[in-house]
Amino acid sequence: MKSKEDTRSLAKKRDDYIAWEDYFMSAAYLAAMRSKDPNTQVGCVIVDKEQRIVAAGYNGMPNGIDDDKV
Q: What is the domain partition of the chain in residue ranges?
């Protein structure tokens, strides 16, 4: 019977994963898709030094504008 250590040594690390920058840009693009503004969709993510997303957001309609009536 193989131990967990033996099984791990048989698995190879993937090398076709996306870069951190591409991952974060994709997250920002996805956040932008939440915007109801018909002309401008902007998304952002804030990332710490350990490559963790600590905040995400997107633009909304200006204050006082009912986005359901646009």
A: 16-58
